[in-house]
Specification:
The chain is of the alpha/beta class. It contains 14 helices and ten strands. The strands form two sheets. It has an eight-stranded mixed sheet, sandwiched between helices. Strands 1-2 form a two-stranded antiparallel sheet.
Amino acid sequence: MAAVDPLILSIIIGAVVLLAAGIGIGVAVGRRRALERQRQAELEAEQRGDAGAAGGGDDDREGGGVATLDPDLDPGAGTAAGAGPDLLDRPEAPRTRLQRLRARLAGQNNALSRGLLNLLSGGTIDEETWEDFEATLISSDLGVGPTTELVDRLRTRFKVEGVTDGAEARRILREELLALVDPNLDRTLHDQRVGDDPGVVMVVGVNGTGKTTTVGKLARVMVAEDRDVLLGAADTFRAAAADQLETWGARVGVPTVRGAEGADPASVAYEAVTAGVDLEVDCVLIDTAGRLHTKTGLMDELGKVKRVIEKKAPVTEVLLVIDATTGQNGLIQARIFREVVDVTGIVLTKLDGSAKGGIIVQVQRELGVPVKLVGLGEGPDDLAPFDAEEFVDAILG
């Protein structure tokens, strides 16, 4: 028998992989469209005043509930791999989750909040009070530079404006904190279509920061905004990563493109973007393998993934996921990742735990990269757009 040309063999194998991915994607898109048709039916029923015909009460429509798909709406509904029962989650609307997360942040007993409270409630503010306040700010990961700047400005304003009561001190403190967090930074998530191409968002970070979970939660945010999303499981090194991402997508009817374990991550990412272009989705979210920022070879490979994707469509956003509890180490990570893949936004996870909050100022100050999203819990909808005013008001209590 004549030997088969390796190039021809590679093309055949690639075609089979794409065909299999296409079948799974088609089924998942059918589930997504079925959900959209059901939502439309609910709206029409509500307009007729027949809430019962809409398939759920007002509480269910507010978010966090579960919508059961009618099998008659789509013959493929509920058959996608990893979908489980014939149920799709109803993600919470971004507006309501932001209000809830603000309340959660306000309830955290972190060092920054305590230091601000002590300054405002201590009566006479003497030299010892200022020194304690300065030490608290530094320990909250605000950094020496921003801390010195904030304390100097507060001392000057308190003296010049003759602050004598807590309400006035609180107003000035809010203004100065807000200036540090910088509400004027562009925190827009650049995930919109560009011409005929979908928005392409790469999500990067070291292991253990909650990167894959963040991709899944971000998909939920987009689905809540009635947008078509596709996931790319380009983390081919961690055995459970693709399964984890596929499960997140299946919950809300979002398809996932994945490869074999150990496959070339750049090829999987490229195939995902190709599928996104063909299906005319609004956005493709690419999960990448977690890697240590100190490993030069792995970081170079991350740059390769971005370059290969851009042969098909431009990468419109690169989000770096940082564990807010890591403090200064998170800042070091941000510097190196930015050099390799031009990070355009930060996602701070675990801000609800022992995180000190000051890293928000440091990352933005030193890198010029805005914090765009924050994670404040383990729930599937505990990811929200970062809002400078909401953050400052929350830590002031």
